[in-house]
Design a protein that fits this description.
Layout (H helix, E strand, L loop, with lengths): L1 E2 L1 E4 L15 H14 L3 E5 L5 H13 L4 E7 L2 H10 L6 E8 L2 H8 L3 H18 L3 E6 L6 H14 L3 E6 L6 H14 L7 E6 L6 H10 L4 E4 L13 H10 L1 H4 L1 E2 L7 H12 L20 H9 L19 E3 L5 H10 L6 H17 L3 E2 H10 L8 E9 L7 E8 L4 E8 L3 H13 L4 E9 L8 E9 L2 E9 L2 H24 L10
Helix pairs in contact: 1-2, 1-11, 2-3, 5-6, 6-7, 7-8, 16-17
The structure holds 3-methyl-2-oxobutanoic acid and zinc ion (ZN).
Amino acid sequence: MRRVQFFDTTLRDGEQSPGVNLNAEEKVAIALQLERLGIHVLEAGFAAASPGDLEAVRQVGEAVKEATVVSLARAVPGDIEKAREALRGAENPGIHVFLATSPIHRKYKLNMTREQVLEKAENAVRLAKKYFPHVEFSMEDGGRTEKEFLCQVAERVIPAGADVLNVPDTVGYLTPAEYGEIFRYLKERVRGIEKVKLSAHCHDDLGMAVANTLAAIEAGVEQVEGAINGIGERAGNTALEEVAMALATREDHYQVVTGLNLREIAKTSRMVSKLTGMPVPGNKAVVGANAFAHESGIHQDGMLKNSSTYEIMRPETVGLEATQLVLGKHSGRHAFRDKLSEMGYRLPEEKIDSLFIRFKELADRKKRVEEEDLVSLVEEKWGGEEEIFTLETVQLSYGNRSVPTASVRVFDLRRRRALEEAACGNGSVDAIFKAIDRVTGEVVHLEDYKIASVTHGKDALGEVFVKLRQGDSTVQGRGVSTDVLEASARAYIHAVNRLAGRLVERKGETVPASSGS
Ligand code: KIV
Ligand code: ZN
């Protein structure tokens, strides 16, 4: 069977989702999980976009050992140099150079003639090939480009050294038949086309990204691009887990193999959702909470007789096991550490220590500590290196006819002292957030607040996501607890820590944020 490789852009196009902002540590965590999933090419970011992006690409490039790690670059020498700088220490470095080719982009965005586009594309690929063993070239807005011009671009970049040629449907405009036709056209007409891998990259503006990607596979592409959970610019990118499961479930039809480790799908989806703060809709294909739930009596009866009556995929195939009781309040640190490593987490000892304290608190309050709960605890702690304030206590006075009042006690690790403040608010959460503002002295604006439950039942963990803005920095915070008000306080402090950490960096203070002064 033919082999199709997966190019994941969760950390680049996915991170372009409005409001998503991953730090380097989170990007590395996701990248390592994508590697466990078996992703072949991983786009770590856009090195030239900012020093922070460059640093994140560098860290991902050094952490990932198997997959090829690429940085996006415009077709200009400066961007290619930045990508080179970022990936100097990477095990398998690559670059993804792009230039718009469509008449609309040539006229309104680039103000360039066809000949100028051809020259710029060729020069960029030639330079990129000097530095990188793996060069992908993308004809941005390829879906709306004249087919014969796509052929001309291809015939310039292939001899210049492109290894992969990508035709993105940048604006999600094409139908599956039209998109597949582009690849058939290129394969028939372009001289040297056999020297490159053709790649599909689709956006979901009309809800056709996955269908278009599958049509491209039928037309013979050897690489597909997308993001986990379909996150990305505007309506998002192709959801890679959906393509993977379509290919596996309908192998009889597509006749291709991917080599992916499908059992890692659920975990990858969960991690991306938590670290980006983008919840997965319940009815989402493959990874939604209801994707394997059967509600109607007739369906349940069929399922009991034989699961194939209403289920075309088994939940275990994507790594959704029946809920297990994993640890309880009598479990020791050793068992806790073993469980985390069995779940694939490689964490430093100090992190395990602080997580163990949180686990014990949780086990006291919650009878059944499930794998999902542990995932939430661990993922609440990514980015914990910037910890400046920690929540000690939160108390609330609430009545439906009185003004809610909160008092919070927070430990300030810089000054090594506990601080206490109280505040009123127009609701309990508002009062807590105002009290935290007073304690920390940070001026921040709450841009978003989301709440979700981690598992089921009365004692389920509540998980809160907040988005805070300070000047032109926006960060996310996450908090979990069996109590949603405590989870709210934790999420808010997590976000404040990230903002305060950035401020310390920007002011160039010599004292590390957590070492006291
Ligand atoms: O959608 C798009 O065209 C892109 C390019 C940068 C490949 O993301
Ligand atoms: Zn894109």
